Amino acid sequence: MKEEHMKQTALENGFAAAAVIGTDQIYTVPEYREFCVQNLCGNYNKNYGCPPYCGTPEEMKEKILRYRRALVLQTRNQVKDMYDGEETGRLKKTHTKKTLKLIQLLKEQGMEGKGLAIMAGSCNLCESCKMPEGKPCPHEDMCFSCLSAYCIDAGHLAKSCGMDMSWTGNIVSFFSIYLFDA
Question: Which pLDDT value is given to residue 182?
């Protein structure tokens, strides 16, 4: 599948911006793992897609580099209060659903191979993650981690893709990535 088609399909399906870059352009900062350890989202050690279960920063970087290309997707939304975690959380979930729907659509249109999704937030495929109960993940092949778990520098990513990263006034931006081989 041509990369131009992937980007155009993303834009036609509600993304504010889309770009395709080489995975070697995804800049990671292992020290960013500390944001996960601080557990501000409440998912540290409680979600199969989150640290420490998902892997070390080095292992996460290796996962990225197993693929050659990355489809970077961005949504930008107006909010009443950018510091309202409930409002931005809903938008993150909407971004995730939109990303998963786009990936499925691209596969139906002929995108080959198995890729890897990296989302704006933690895996939310299940109503509640089975990890705290010690049960296996029912969606192991689809479970995803967020940019923070991968230690991805979102600002650098946005700049690499020519996208506006800013959270200013009442506009918030979210990013997701789909890794694939060309």
Answer: 66
**CB 42 within 8 Å of CB 155:** no
Torsion of the alpha carbons at 151, 155, 161 and 164, rounded to the nearest 10: 140
Q: What pLDDT score was predicted for residue 170?
A: 87
Q: Per-residue pLDDT tens for 126-151?
A: 989 999 999 999 998 889 999 999 99
| Residue found by looking up tokens 């399906």 in the block | 13
Average pLDDT over residues 159-166: 90
Torsion of CA 161, 112, 23, 3, to 10 degrees: -30
CB burial of 45-75 (b: ≥16 within 10 Å; e: otherwise) equals eebbbbbebbeebeebbebbeebebbbbbbb
Extents of the domains making up the chain: 3-180
Backbone angles phi, psi at 159, to 5 degrees: -65, -40
- Those residues with Cβ within 8 angstroms of residue 148's Cβ, 6 or more apart along the chain or in another chain: 32, 35, 36
What residues form DSSP beta bridges with 175? 74
Q: Compute the Cα dihedral for 77, 26, 162, 36 and give only its sign.
A: positive
Q: How many helices (H) and strands (E) does the chain have?
A: 5, 5
